[in-house]
Amino acid sequence: xxxxxxxxxxxxxxxxxxxxxxxxxxxxxxxxxxxxxxxxxxxxxxxxxxxxxxxxxxxxxxxxxxxxxxxxxxxxxxxxxxxxxxxxxxxxxxxxxxxxxxxxxxxxxxxxxxxxxxxxxxxxxxxxxxxxxxxxxxxxxxxxxxxxxxxxxxxxxxxxxxxxxxxxxxxxxxxxxxxxxxxxxxxxxxxxxxxxxxxxxxxxxxxxxxxxxxxxxxxxxxxxxxxxxxxxxxxxxxxxxxxxxxxxxxxxxxxxxxxxxxxxxxxxxxxxxxxxxxx
Length: 279
Known about the structure:
Rossmann fold; five-stranded parallel sheet; 14 helices; NST/OST
């Protein structure tokens, strides 16, 4: 039975798409089509054999088999399940200013119809994409406890943006694969959030994506995601509002994460003063 040995433990909206592109094109790395697998959170009842089938296409020489699902370590039950089935897992995180990450997550939930109200209302009631996935320190300590500090690696979103090759080399080293030069077109976390043309349609297609994964059709999902015509149908040219242009939202999110930033700064020994900045 072939299972993954490396797992993305970080949150969504923090560079995971860049990581997927980086790893899915590396010859020594296997990543299932469609980016997410969601076994330990959403499809655990399908059994470990179903999960193994997602990795049946991995070649023997692909030494790193990755599951890039974005919330395993933020869901205690999912993390325990992961440790039970893959006790020697190695976990890597990409961390982004939690205020900026939450704003990006909120905009995503709005355009896919998973959130409808103001930010203050949705912050604790919406999908865990927004409500729990900025509790970085909890997730990191969970990884240290279950898999060991030496098997946990931290990337930083701002490094992906400013020093993408160095960030890539750091991840390649952790995965134990040869370093590769990043193509110029893929040198940073550049995905620009755009407004949905039709929120209801986006929501229906989001549900369809979950159904495709459940049916084992992640390859089909991957092709749909990369289809430029579908992209044109779903999204307008308008960009979603930037957090820096929304001072009330920025202050709300900054206040919300003050304690988390303090705790993370102590936990990882990194100066996070820039994360405390406000407009």
